[in-house]
Amino acid sequence: MISVSSYLRTTMLVLGMVIISLDGTGRQDNKGNPLPHFLLPQFKEGIVIMKDGNKFTTLLNYNMVDEKMITEVDGIYRYSKNPKNIERIYLDNRMFIPIDNVFYEILASGNASFFLQNKSSLTPKANDIGYGSKSHSTGPTKMTRYELTPVVYQYGEVINIDLPQNVDITPASVYWVSVGDKMKQFNTEKQLLKLFPEYETQIKDYIKKENIKMKNREDVIKLGIYCNEIMKGK
Question: Which member of 32, 115, 163, 216 has the greatest number of CB atoms within 10 A?
Fold first, then answer.
């Protein structure tokens, strides 16, 4: 685990707040194929900054099932062989950093840095077997990958982004907060308040006053910024 706090204290986050639905509506690749398992509606130009100082721009999108940042060049999709060599990625007014070989989106930074692990799972669609019962034993749910000689810097693994048949996309995103060098997970107000007992009353009042919804990304961004404001000087 990298020292998240030491990195983020030098990087104050100012990102546009963009609502992105997780239902997959309207997501398509450059051939018009649906991409319900991707974060963005389509591949967009992003900036990849390497830890060695190199940087490049490329079309990117985030596969929430595989939890991989995917690039598209000439109709071929690849994922990074060594995400730990990447320092950060800017994409669609968002910033991502690699943690444990997946990419977390930074929502707010400071004494307590807030992250979103954009994640989905594949669930086999239920088949009707009569009498109102459903069967979930349908087809494979894994995606095919294979190696190719690298033709794009850092992106040499080819990936098949097509979904298997008869599957549903189930949202499974997780929020994280980093205090010091510890990453702790939360998805509910109760879980978050337990992480900051000394600020429980203030945070609880803010959530009520601003009508914060923990399932809303923008609301959690606002909450993360507020938490860092009341923790200044700590």
Answer: 115
The sheet with strand 86-91 has its strands ordered as 145-152, 155-159, 76-79, 68-73, 55-63, 44-50, 86-91, 94-99, 102-108, 112-117, 174-179, 182-186
pLDDT tens-digit series, residues 163-200: 777 788 889 999 999 987 889 999 999 999 999 999 99
pLDDT in tens, 130-170: 444 444 433 333 332 322 333 344 555 566 677 777 788 88
Based on its alpha-carbon atoms, the radius of gyration of the chain, rounded to whole angstroms, reads: 19
Question: Where in the chain are the domains?
Answer: 4-230
**Which 3 state secondary structure label does DSSP give 157?**
strand
Sequence-ordered strand ranges (E) for 102-173: 102-108, 112-117, 120-124, 127-130, 133-135, 145-152, 155-159, 167-171
As a dihedral over the C-alpha atoms of residue 59, residue 65, residue 68, residue 70, rounded to 10 degrees, the angle is -20
Q: How many CB atoms lie within 10 A of CB 159?
A: 19
Predicted TM-score of the model (pTM): 0.75
Which two tokens mark 141?
């749910």
CA dist list (Å): 180 to 72, 187, 189: 36, 20, 21
